[in-house]
Amino acid sequence: MIHMILLVSSNKDIASLNIANQILQHYPFQKAPEKFQNNPVYTACLNQKSVTLIRLHEESVKAQDLPENFPDAELIVFISRHSSQSGIPTLTVHPPGNFADADLGGLPRTVSVSPATAMRDTLKMLVFFQQKFGLLDYEVSFEVTHHGPSLNVPTMFVELGSSIHQWTDCKAACAVACATISTIENFESKPTQKAVIGIGGTHYNKKFTQMALDDETFFGHMIPKYAVANVDVFMLKHCAERSLEQVSEVLLDWRGIKSEDKHDLVLALDASGLVYRKI
Question: What is the model's pLDDT at position 85?
Answer without folding.
Answer: 85
